Amino acid sequence: MVESLLVIGVAISIFVGFNIGGSSTGIAWGPAVGAGLIRKVTAAAIMTGFVFLGGWTVGRNVMETLSEGIITMEISLTAGVAVLFFIGLGILVANVFGVPVPTSMTTVGAIAGLGLATDTLNYETITWILSWWIFTPIFAFWIGAIIGRYIYSGLSQRVQIENSDGPLFAVNRDGQFATPALGPNTTWREVVGTTAVVVLGCYMAFSAGASNVPNAAAPLVSGGALTAEPAIVIATVAIGLGGFTIARRTMESVGSDLSDIPLLAALIIMLTAATITTALSSIGIPISLVLSSVGTIVGLGWGRASRPVAAHEALSGRTADTDIVMGALTAEDELDEVPPIGEDEPEDVLEADDLFKPEAIIKYVTMWIVGPTMSTVLAYTFFVLVPGVV
Known about the structure:
Elements: H1 2-34, H2 40-56, H3 59-69, H4 77-96, H5 103-118, H6 123-158, E1 169-172, E2 179-182, H7 188-222, H8 228-244, H9 247-253, H10 263-282, H11 289-305, H12 311-316, H13 347-350, H14 358-385
Antiparallel strand pairs: 1-2
Helix pairs in contact: 1-2, 1-4, 1-7, 1-8, 1-9, 1-10, 2-7, 2-8, 3-7, 4-5, 4-7, 4-14, 5-7, 5-14, 6-10, 6-11, 7-8, 7-10, 10-11
């Protein structure tokens, strides 16, 4: 009986990890794949390796919070399987609505539902986690806003990531020994840019592993059904499988629901989101990459579009006759010279496509609320009606 239940739990854990891989691989490697800098199979392989590294190191802190911090009792194998089921259900609903899966939030919600049903919920820990969920997108927004208003325009004029025809590197066979050389059309600028994209993709994958591996593994670790090490391996394999399969589509379409984001802007968003997520994971906070990613996207667009007005006007909303159009990043390369802050910009920049769609932001935020709320309510109802599984 125990063995059969463990097999079911592992199967659900793989399902959760598989869907996590489909979502997080697209977020981490979508910009690089979309720019033609790396192949999908290569991206999935690198993703799997760095997810394992993130889960094996920083992810253990998050696993400890999920396993021991949210409720004051051990999660039995039966209860762990039920919790995993509700996590998987939350992922399924998010996929149906076509938004990035707030897996960490869904996981916390399901465990909190168990805690409420058994009167073992650690309210101090939950309050601590919720406060970070509220603070994170706000903090990410202001980082993006500062970069967008004061740094991005100048940076876009100096840093252009190129992608020439042909291979990045080649083999020179003219001498006695074959030696590596730049591709026929490759420049050192392209090498540096491509390296930056790949390094940030690896960093994003590490961050995804730190925050997401525990979501698929912790419910089976808490009650001792599995130790941390095999649970991490199982979760990593499942995430990698998702990266090699369903993530192929998400790597093509990532970001399209929010905007047509230039590659430089995407790299800034990746760096900011990965840093915030890794930092919070290191102190044991279950957090989703989506929170900081969307916050940075909105902040970056607002900061860039607010350049034509003074700071106090942008913050107060009193912009006189100047419209703050959330966009402008998409036309940034058309500027030969960056106007100073407070001066009007060319008409073609002010009429650029929106950086983000407000309706998409509303959908994301709604899922941040509905996802964990639904998993909490469903888990609470189940464990109240079927107390014998605890």
